[in-house]
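Input set for joint prediction.
Command: fold jointly, output tokens.
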Amino acid sequence: MSKRLFSCLLLTSLALPAWAAFDVGQLMADLARHKGGKAKFVEKKYISLLDKPVVSTGEMTYTAPDKLEKRTLTPKPEILILDKDLLSIERDKQKLTINLGNQPEALAFVDSIRGTLSGNRAALEKNYLLHLSGTQDKWVLTLLPSDQKIATLLQRITVSGSKNQIRSIEYLQADGDRSILSIEPIETK
Amino acid sequence: MTRSAGRTFLLWLLAMLAGVAIVWQARFSADMSFFLPAHPTAEQKVLVDQLKEGAVSRLLMLAIEGGEAGQRAALSRELRGRLLKTDNFVVVQNGEADGLQADRDFLFKHRYLLSPAVTAERFSVAGLHDAIANSIDLLASPAGMMLKPMLARDPTGELYAIVSQLNAGAQPNSRDGVWASRDGERAMLLVQTRALGSDTDGQEASIELIHREFAAAAAAAGLTDVRLQLSGPGLFAVKARATIKDEVGRLSLISTLAIVGVLFFVYRSLRLLSLGLVPVLSGALAAVVVVSLVYGTVFGITVGFGSALIGEAVDYSIYYFVQSGRVGLDAWRQRFWPTIRLGVQTSVAGFGALLFSGFPGLAQLGLYSLSGVLTAALVTRFVLPKLAGNTPLRRDLAPLGMTLNRHLQSLAGWRWPVLLLAALAVGQLYLHRHSLWHPELSALSTVSAEDGARDMAIRADIAAPDSRYMVVIGAAEREAALQAAERAGEKLDRLIADGVIGGYDSPARFLPSLATQQARRASLPPADLLQSRLQAAQQDSPLAAGKLGGFIADVAAARNQGEVTRQSLDGSSLALLVDSLLLHHADGWSVLLPLHPPSGEDAPEIAATTVRQALAGSDALFIDMKGEFNKLYNDYLHEAMLLSLAGLLAIVALLTITLRSARRLATVLLPLVLAVLIVIAGLNLLGERLHLLHLVGMLLIVAVGSNYALFFDGAERQQLDPETLASMAIANLTTAIGFGTLGLSQVPVLHAVGVTVGPGAVLALLLAAIFVPRETRR
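tokens >
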């Protein structure tokens, strides 16, 4: 895994002279090379009604290009699996399966994270305007919803990371509530 | 024509006219009642009600093919709009989400009366603390995101408690906001007709309407390359009726034409031909009249059996004309009538055995054939001679008879080969004894393999409910029915926890019993008490009690709100759901609780015994529809075996009493038994899986075939003259034509009888000729 990651990076640095401008296309190409991995996450949800953020922690595993597993350990165990357009949530012995094809808003939401993970620019640009700042080592990608329906739910998504590793995703909802998902990769041999 | 002949003719004509008048009034039906038990058990009654009136029997599945995905989606929306404007459909679903808001509003408004989590403990300090902490935890999950806007008013998560007990089940795929097939290449719709499943006319009209509206919608959109596929029980019923209607006409015409051709060849006289058809017409008419008078409704399949009846009934007039032509009427009555009478009696015994069947279709076939054969024989004996007067048969059949005789003589050497063949047949049947019978009722179904496959494909694409498993409870009152549903629900909840079932639907979820609603309301504390408990419960919580004013107000409102009634549901899709699960009928109410199998298996089945054990002691009845169907069929098959044996015994008894000789009895029976063996082995060899009607066919080989074997018995004492032999050959030919025509039918019930009795009758004659005792020959 790390070996492949290393060779990816090596290839990237060979292919890209340091002075080349870092743009969305470049970032997407980097991300697309990321074939998957395991990470710890901490998610904080700031909700206006609550005096403190709701914090959840766990692990997530990504397998390129379209399989994502989010395993929440605290405060309540929950397993969320996204496989293509099927989202299943397992909690309290109950399993809920949602076909995202039936829910365009939810799909747009999911596409923001999946599109970023897989470096699928077309999928992202279907629903969002992309804006990139920073350098290859420390970049911030901002997604602004272009669709009116999504804009009624979501103001902005901010993804930040380093090279082809996403470090955090912040969702700012239309009502001002926001959540920050921090990702810490687990190095596997 | 003499005066007495005129009087007889008039009487006959009057009887025929009366018959026509009755038939004119008769009700004909081509629905599945033919197959449904006449005396159902409690389980079977549910099955029958569901098939005739249940929601599933009114479902039609639609698939739009061709064009682009966007065009199909637009067409799906347009078609739904058009269908909803008509009055023919209760539900038209295509995945559009417009109806959900009303349902959600209803659930939210009545959440404190509908939520199963509402108890006095939940509204104690500790209960409130736990429930609200759980809701906050849930906010961490995407599943809880829908709760956020309602959190201040529903901090204990009652809406979530209501919704999470609903089994979302398998949802159809979706493209462009409407349902699509798994591959996305078809837009799918699900329609529930207002017409009952048993109302074939209503189903036909609804299906035509769908096709018309689709064509109009496609034309309006300028689309020419789009097609509509449709399937469902209603379509099967309509198609089955069309098939039967078509076949009744076609088969009767074929057999009539063929038989008339044979008769004309024999008689060479239009007058004799017409006279010869008198007993046939009388029999066919009387058969319908008797069935209509006894059963009220005549099944289409029964009338389809008419082609066989014609072939059998015409025999008597053939005997009369050919035999009496030579010996005269009186001699005929003396010499031949007793043999014919015995033949009629054996036929009547065979058909009569079917009368006792609990399979209504079979009982009707029995009564129909019995009345027809009996009438034809009586008309031949008492009416035909008067009408015919002394009409000589112009054509001399002696040469034909002599030719036949020569051939039959030469058959005598075939005895051992035939016995060998029969032994091989026994071996063949023994070897295949495990795969001889078709195990399912579907063997009798008129649904073609192609239609069945299309139905499976559409059903899988739309994830339509198959409602195989169901718990049914009866009660005198609505309240009692709902309370029983809640009690059964508690037991089913435990089965869900144990993983025995995946889930279930219940009308009590949206319309709880008044007792339950009152208990839930009584557990809600008054506003000031709730306020103080919240203060205590929420001290350390991120959700301060001060922000929960909406919650306190809603609980106070719920305390003063009236109960949820059936009327409160009007305007939401929940009303339809409750109506399809809570049924009011003449003797009270019944509740249906469809069970969903545990998920994650390809062909999921529910462990019936575990569910039955869990429900033991209550009056809730667990039903596996597929199991019931197969049990029903096995009951029919078992019963048909008993009846066939009884019929066989009756025939043997009849022959024993009349023939008074074991040797003569054996001479008559041996060819019949051999014919049955050889025909059945032959069918098996040709790959035909036997079912119930083949079994009946075996009985009929004996009943009908004995008519021919009996003449050879007569021949033992008196030389079989060439004319008699010719008359037998011709009568046998017409019978074979009549039954053989049924073999052409696509209706399995008719086909099976046709392919069994048609060849069986011919074989019976041939074998009887082969096994005629030798000492009578020269």
